């Protein structure tokens, strides 16, 4: 029945404890127990009290072979199993290779001196057994004391290993936490760097957009200035043409006056010759006077028509001035329409000038015809011509007075136009100053961003210093642990000097522990190298940041140079515009006066 039970438990994974005491197990049961110990991986405690397993040497040897292969069982109870020194030797051979058994109870057996020595020898290689009960086995007292010392040594070794393992676990956890913190800090640093790059890109885009807007505004102003210059040139050309025409007309009038003076002198000479014939021709002169009065009325009508035409021309010129003022007021919003209107006004002005010239030519022709007719009849009409001359001189004085009044009005209109142009220029200058102020504000914002980045770099350096201090603390802690381990090693050496039998094995154990410590030291050195690599990477990142900051400062300097250059160009353009306006203002009154004439 035990064989069937144990065969069933070979594949079981839930049973942790098995108690088979007092079941009279024999050789077959011992073999089944050895098979169970070889195959089962879950049983931690096995109780076999009162079964007399030591009587069956072959079965007990199979049991010991199973115990040798088992690495799970922690507690084994073999009390009252009639185990002799041979069975104890088998158990000792099994315990030399077993690494899991911690408690073994062999009380009330027949182990004797040989069995006790075998068990003592196996304890030199077995470092996991902590409790071994050998009461009631006829084992000498010195062997029992040596066994107790070996078990105490195993217990101390287990405690030291557990403490070292705990410390290694703590150190590994701290190292992992440091790695996590450094990774987090590095990721935060990378995120801050990315955010700073995005902010810099945004600021560069905003500055580029602002610069493009300013450039567009400057281009618009430059185009407006060019259009104004072209219009001023065209108006100056038209005024020059009108002045030339007026000069020609003045020359014609001077020539007519000279001819009139010559004719008057000739008539005066003829008057002296014809005084004698005056009495005979008085009747004829009366008739001629009536005809002359009629012609005088006709001339007055013609003069009135000329005055009306002059008024019409003055009205047309006034309309042209109003159109010019309207076009200058609408230049900012409707440049193209203003140009078209100017062209239309120029055409109208040219047409009006052509009409005036044609009318004046016609009137000159009429006047020349009339003067020829008057010259033909001048011999008989000296008195009537003198009266006509007086009336014409009075009318010319009136025309001059009207021209002077019109000239004063034209000068007032020019003063108004100049004041409007100055106001517009002041508004444009204020607008440009506002744009320059915005550019300075953007530059100040960029400088503030650079200062923030410097502060962040300083914070990162402070964090790096904190990490280095923390690493120094860890090194000190490792040194303390190393000192504790050295102290414990020295205590172990003193204890091993007392026990001559365990000297060689203890030395091997210490060498193994030293190799483990060397491994720990290598791990610590590897961690220190990783820390150094991370610190070097961090320093490289900081150097890259400083390079980027220097590049940004150079870009800011370039921007400031561009802004200063733009200011100088704006000042030059403003000076050019002011000079052009002053030239136009200085050259306009003469032209208007000549055109009014």
UniProtKB/TrEMBL annotation:
Subcellular location: Cytoplasm, Cytoskeleton, Microtubule organizing center, Centrosome
One family name in Pfam for this protein: LRR_6
Domain of life: Eukaryota
Coiled-coil segments: 225-259, 289-569
Alphabetized SUPFAM superfamilies for the sequence: RNI-like
One cellular component term from this protein's GO annotations in UniProt: plasma membrane
Keywords of this entry: Coiled coil, Cytoplasm, Cytoskeleton
Name of the protein in question: LRC45 protein
Species the sequence originates in: Sinosuthora webbiana
Upper lineage: Eukaryota, Metazoa, Chordata, Craniata, Vertebrata
């Amino acid at each position: 029945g035990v064989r069937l039970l144990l065969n069933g438990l070979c594949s079981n994974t839930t049973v942790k404890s098995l108690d088979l005491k007092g079941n009279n197990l024999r050789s077959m049961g011992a073999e089944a127990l050895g098979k169970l110990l070889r195959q089962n991986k879950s049983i931690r405690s096995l109780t076999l009290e009162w079964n007399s397993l030591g009587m069956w040497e072959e079965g007990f040897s199979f049991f010991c072979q199973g115990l040798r292969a088992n690495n799970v069982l922690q507690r084994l109870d073999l009390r009252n199993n009639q185990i002799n020194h041979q069975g104890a030797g088998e158990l000792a051979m099994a315990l030399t290779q077993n690494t899991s058994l911690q408690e073994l109870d062999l009380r009330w057996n027949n182990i004797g001196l040989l069995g006790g020595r075998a068990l003592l020898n196996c304890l030199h290689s077995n470092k996991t057994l902590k409790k071994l009960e050998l009461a009631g086995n006829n084992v000498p007292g010195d062997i029992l004391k040596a066994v107790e010392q070996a078990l105490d040594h195993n217990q101390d070794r287990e405690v030291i290993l557990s403490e070292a393992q705990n410390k290694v676990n703590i150190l590994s956890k701290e190292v992992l936490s440091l790695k996590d913190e450094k990774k987090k800090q590095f990721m935060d640093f990378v995120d801050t760097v990315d955010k700073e790059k995005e902010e810099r890109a945004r600021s560069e885009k905003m500055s580029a957009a602002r610069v493009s807007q300013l450039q567009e505004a400057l281009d618009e102003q430059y185009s407006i200035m060019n259009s104004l210059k072209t219009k001023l040139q065209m108006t100056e050309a038209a005024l020059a043409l009108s002045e030339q025409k007026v000069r020609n007309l003045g020359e014609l009038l001077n020539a007519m006056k000279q001819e009139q003076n010559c004719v008057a002198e000739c008539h005066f000479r003829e008057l002296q010759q014809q005084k004698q014939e005056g009495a005979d021709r008085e009747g004829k002169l009366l008739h001629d006077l009536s005809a002359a009065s009629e012609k005088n009325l006709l001339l007055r009508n013609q003069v009135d028509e000329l005055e009306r035409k002059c008024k019409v021309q003055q009205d047309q010129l006034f309309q042209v001035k109003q159109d010019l003022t309207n076009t200058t007021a609408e230049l900012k919003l409707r440049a193209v329409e203003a140009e078209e209107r100017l062209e239309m006004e120029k055409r109208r002005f040219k047409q009006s000038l052509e009409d005036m010239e044609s009318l004046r030519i016609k009137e000159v022709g009429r006047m020349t015809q009339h003067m020829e007719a008057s010259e033909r009849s001048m011999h008989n009409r000296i008195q009537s011509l003198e009266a006509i001359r007086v009336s014409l001189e009075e009318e010319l004085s009136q025309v001059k007075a009207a021209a002077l009044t019109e000239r004063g009005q034209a000068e007032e209109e020019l003063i108004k136009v100049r004041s409007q142009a100055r106001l517009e220029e002041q508004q444009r200058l204020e607008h440009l100053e506002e744009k320059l102020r915005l550019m300075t504000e953007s530059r100040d914002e960029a400088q503030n961003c650079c200062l923030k980045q410097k502060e962040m770099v300083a914070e990162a350096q402070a964090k790096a210093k904190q990490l280095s201090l923390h690493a120094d603390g860890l090194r000190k802690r490792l040194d303390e642990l190393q000192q504790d381990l050295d102290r414990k090693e020295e205590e172990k050496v003193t204890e091993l000097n007392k026990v001559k039998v365990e000297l060689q094995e203890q030395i091997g154990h210490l060498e193994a522990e030293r190799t483990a410590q060397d491994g720990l030291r290598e791990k610590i050195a590897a961690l220190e190298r990783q820390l150094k690599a991370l610190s070097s990477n961090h320093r490289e990142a900081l150097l890259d940041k400083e390079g980027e900051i220097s590049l940004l400062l150079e870009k800011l300097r370039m921007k400031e140079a561009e802004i200063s250059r733009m200011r100088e160009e704006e000042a030059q353009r403003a000076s050019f515009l002011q000079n052009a306006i002053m030239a136009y203002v200085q050259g306009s009154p003469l032209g208007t006066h000549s055109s009014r004439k």
